[in-house]
Write a structure and sequence with these properties.
By secondary structure, the protein is mainly alpha-helical. 98% of the residues lie in helices and 0% in strands. It is rod-shaped and about 145 Å long. The chain starts with a helix and ends with a helix.
Length: 103
């Protein structure tokens, strides 16, 4: 009877060890799979962030080009206005210089 009880205890311990090892293996598999999925998710987010950054850079480049074009056009218009004003004032300036020094 005692030997039967010892046999059952040993079988139960062996079964517990076996189940514990299986649980450890399963837990390790779950952790490994979670790490793999997390790594994939991180890589996807990095890729998405790089894509978004590229879009933002392109949009900023386009806006800068538009701003530069507008600024250049505005400067050209102002320069043209100044040249017209200078051209229209040339005769008066020449007359003023001549009358100042030769009168």
């Amino acid at each position: 009877m005692a030997s039967e009880a010892v046999k059952r205890i040993l079988e139960a311990e062996a079964e517990a060890d076996k189940r514990s090892a299986e649980a450890r293996t399963k837990a390790d598999g779950i952790v490994t799979e979670a790490e793999r999925k997390a790594s994939i998710a991180v890589q996807k987010r990095l890729t998405d962030a790089k894509t978004e950054m590229s879009k933002l850079r392109e949009e900023n480049r386009r806006k800068l080009e538009e701003y530069s074009d507008k600024a250049e056009k505005s400067c050209s218009e102002k320069l043209s206005e100044l040249e017209k004003t200078a051209d229209s004032n040339k005769p008066k300036a020449i007359e003023a210089i001549i009358s100042e020094y030769f009168s």
